[in-house]
Amino acid sequence: MLQGGALDTRMGRPYAAFSIRDGGTTRAMNEPRWHRMARVGEPRGSAGRLAFGVLAALVVSACSGSGGTSSSVTFTSWGGSYQDGQVKAWIQPYEKETGTRVIQDSPTDYSKLRTMVEAGRVTWDVVSVEADFGLDVDKKWLDPIDYSVVDRTHIQEGMADPYRVGILTYAVVLGYNTGSLGGRTPTGWGDFFDPQRFPCKRAAQKKASSGILEIALMADGVKPADMYPIDVDRALRRLDTIKKDLLWFDTGSEGQQLLASGEVCMAAIFSGRVYSARNDDKAPVGITWNQPVISADYLVVPKGTPHEVAAMKLIAYITSAGPQSRLSRYLPYAPANTEASTDPATAPYLTTNHLDGSVRFDDQWWAQNFSAVDERFQAWLLG
C-alpha cells in the first residue's frame, strides 16, 4: 500500500462521502458502502460521486483564488463513520471558531493525489492518510509541514515527520462474532490460525501491509520485539495453513460487515470497526487484545495546493490538545497529542491501554520494502 494505490480506498478505514451539507460542514456527496487499515466507516463512493466532489473542490478553489491564504480549505479523508467522527471532533468546531469554510471529499486515494500533483491541478489541501504514506519516499508529492505554524511539542514521539504529522493511533486486532463460535472465545492469533478448533471462515484485509504478515508470524511464535525485518516466506507458509478458510476484504467497512453478519467467525480488523459493529450495528462481536498491531493516521498537504497557509492552520488546530481531546468522544482511537484527554466510554478500545505485547507497525521498513513484499504477496494470493 505504501507506494501502490489507495489502501482502503485504511489499515484503514475509508468511508463514504457526499451529502451537500452536514451540520454546517460542506461535504462532497456519496453513499455509504464503505471504507482506514482502516479505522469505523462506510463504503467508497462511485466514480461519479467522487468526480462531483472533485468538481466542488475545483469550484471553491477557483472562487477563492490562487494565493496561499483562503477562507476555505478542502479536507479529504476516508469517509463514513471515521470521517464523520473527524468532522464532529475537528471540522465543525474549526469552522465555527474561525469562520473558515471546510470543503470535504473522500475517500483518500494515494494514486489520485499523485495524479493531481503531477498534473498541476491540486484540489485537496489537507489529506488524512495511513502510516504507509507521507514518508520521505513520497516527498515529491507533498509540501513539508510548517512547524512554525503546527506545534509539535506534544505530538507523540515519531509522529511529527517532515511531510506528515500524526493525528491518532489505532490497532488491527482479533475481532470475533460470538454467535458463530458456539460459546468459545479466541484468545490470540494462534486461534485465528487453528481451523480444527475453530472450523469457520476468517477475514483479513487484502494487502500485504495490512498487518496480516505480522499477525501470521506472531501466530507462528515470533515475538513482537523480533518482528522486523519480516520473514515473508515464513509468514506466507503460515498463511497457507488457513488459505482456504480466508475471505479477503478491501475496505474496513467490508470487514465490519463480514464480521457483524456472522459470515466469518473471526477477522483481523481495525479496532474501531469492532467498536462500530458492536455499538452502531448492535452485532454480537468482541475483541481479543492479545498482540495487536498498532499503527497511526497522519495528515499531509499535497504539493502545489493553492491554500497552503490555510492548510497548515487547519492542521495546527486538529493536532492541538483541545480538538485532540474531543476525538475519542466520537471515534475509539487514541489522540496523537500527549496533552489530550480521552473519553472514559471509549477507553477500552484505545491503543494506549493495550500496549503490552503489541507490535508497532514499522513505517520505515514498509516504505523500503513494500514493492518487493507486495509483489510476493500478490503472487501468493494467485497461487
Mean of residue pLDDT? Answer: 85
Give the helix proportion (percent range): 25-40%
Low-confidence stretches: 1-68
H/E element sequence = EEHEHEHEEEEHEHHEHEHEHHEEH
Total DSSP helices: 11
Largest sheet: 12 strands, mixed
Strand content: 15-25%
Corresponding CATH architecture of the largest domain: 3-Layer(aba) Sandwich
Q: Write down how many β-strands occur, each being a DSSP E stretch of 2 or more residues.
A: 14
Describe this structure in words.
With 383 residues, the chain is of the alpha/beta class. The protein has two domains: 21-169 and 295-351, Periplasmic binding protein-like II (D-Maltodextrin-Binding Protein, domain 2), CATH 3.40.190.10; 171-294 and 358-382, D-Maltodextrin-Binding Protein, domain 2 (3-Layer(aba) Sandwich), CATH 3.40.190.10. It contains eleven helices and 14 strands. The strands form two sheets. Strands 3, 4, 5, 6, 7, 8, 9, 10, 11, 12, 13 and 14 form a twelve-stranded mixed β-sheet that branches. It has a two-stranded antiparallel sheet with strand order 1-2. α5 crosses α6 and α7 (252-261) packs across α8. The protein is globular. The model is unreliable at 1-68 (pLDDT under 50).
